[in-house]
Amino acid sequence: MSAELSIFDLFLQASLLVKSVMLILLAFSVACWTMIFQRKKVLDQAALQLKTFEDRFWSGADLTKLYNEISSRQQIHGIESLFVAGFKEFARLRKSNIQSPQAIVDGTHRAMRVALSREVDSLETHLPFMATVGSISPYIGLFGTVWGIMNSFIALGAVQQATLAMVAPGIAEALVATAMGLFAAIPAVMAFNRFSHKVEKLENSYGNFMEEFSSILHRQTAVEH
Length: 225
Description:
This protein is mainly alpha-helical. The protein has one domain (13-224).
């Protein structure tokens, strides 16, 4: 408790600029932690949905029935959005006068590619902010530290006899800014790296499904023609 009170006292004694730096870093930290919990929930749900959908898809479920069930929902996310986009375009092209199976499959693949791009953009929401916080927070904290130490030495130069007790509080409050910069940056960098890896794995899984689904549709179209 005494350590917490001393840090709070140092914040109150800091200059206006150093206080501003500390408040900015505190806001960055709170925002990052909020986004970390939100992204973790979204990515975990996407991974669970991927496994559930693939289990059902490869169990031999009727694709038309599966499409009708999923497309009837108000919100469609993840791999289901790729499946719906691909099957919808496939059905549309098959009803047209296109005779080439490859043209039908290429159109279907393009539709799924667009859906994939949208899903990846959605999964990567907030990740650029985390990367930015992880990159700039230490420098913002260092700026507050440099400014606080500079003010301490300026004040020290105005007295004839300098003591450690005179300069120590100013240096301590300045170093708190650096500590807060690291406190904001480290979780942001760790979360960014972890979530980026998860997004990459999901994107690869989505891409593999696209290729496999396109092969199934190509075989079906070739048989019909």
